[in-house]
Amino acid sequence: MDYSTDLSSSKVLVETEGDIARHGIVIIRTIETDLVPSIMAAARDSLESSPRKLGKLGEEDLDDLVQSLRKAASKSVKELTRLYTRVLSKVGNEDLLELEADLEGVDQLFRWQRIAKAIEPVDAILVEHGFSPLELSGPEDVAENLRFELEEKWEPAFSRFSEAVRIAAENIRKQESGAPPPDRKRKKGTRK
Q1: Neighbours of 144 (CB within 10 A)
Q2: 116 close to 136: Cβ distance less than 8 angstroms
Q3: How far apart, in whole angstroms, are the C-alpha atoms of residue 105 and residue 99?
Q4: Angstrom distance (rounded) from CA 67 to CA 64
Q5: Share of the chain above pLDDT 70, in %
Q6: What is the pLDDT of residues 114-158, one digit of tens each?
Q7: CA within 13 Å, CB half, 140
Q8: In 169-179, which positions are buried (b, 16+ CB within 10 angstroms) versus exposed (e)?
Q9: How far separated are the first and last CA of the chain, in Å rounded?
Q10: Longest dimension (CA), the chain
Q11: Domain edges within the chain
Q12: What is the average pLDDT across 64-69?
């Protein structure tokens, strides 16, 4: 990342970048470990809610259906975690002016609405076989710590990071336009 801004902005930027990286990693790990089991539990509930349709399936057909559900869930979750990993690594290495333009998109990725899209392939299979779609209403249906990270940790950390990026990008634009850098107050007792 380009830290050609004043020292205090750089420090805040590095600290806030570390915060979102830390919270992003916790979110990714929670998704990796808890989302597939939650999807499969919700799929089981969907199957059990239609006992007649379930009874019409032979044992081998049921095994094939459950296997296809698990495979779709695993693939979808893996793609989501790869996306999150790419985004987090890009945040740490992207030019600040480009990053400023991408902030809204990054923030939208780390929302429950985006995570919930990981169930769509499983929903499609269930509906194709005549069962109801999954019911995962929020991150607490996956894990309480996912809700906590998304709502109470990620949001404020990303807000601070966004503000730091905007300030740093503004400083870069000022430097590029030839404006003098922001005044830095000198501490008492420091030498010239």
Answers
A1: 12
A2: yes
A3: 10
A4: 5
A5: 87
A6: 999 999 999 999 999 999 999 888 999 999 999 999 999 999 999
A7: 3
A8: bbbbeeeeeee
A9: 30
A10: 86
A11: 7-174
A12: 95
pTM, whole model, 2 decimals? 0.80
Tokens linked to 153: 């940790």
State the pLDDT at residue 150. Answer: 92
Mean pLDDT for 150-171 is: 90
> Are the beta carbons of 76 and 31 closer than 8 angstroms?
no
Give the total residue count for the chain.
Answer: 192
The structure tokens listed for 63 are 């095994």
Per the CB < 8 A criterion, the answer to whether 48 and 98 are in contact is no
Within its chain, how far is the Cα of 189 from the centroid?
46
Three-state secondary structure of the chain: CCCCCCHHHHHHHHHHHHHHHHHHHHHHHHHHHHHHHHHHHHHHHHHHCCHHHHHHCCHHHHHHHHHHHHHHHHHHHHHHHHHHHHHHHHHHHCCHHHHHHHHHHHHHHCCHHHHHHHHHHHHHHHHHCCCCCCCCCCHHHCCHHHHHHHHHHHHHHHHHHHHHHHHHHHHHHHHHCCCCCCCCCCCCCCCC
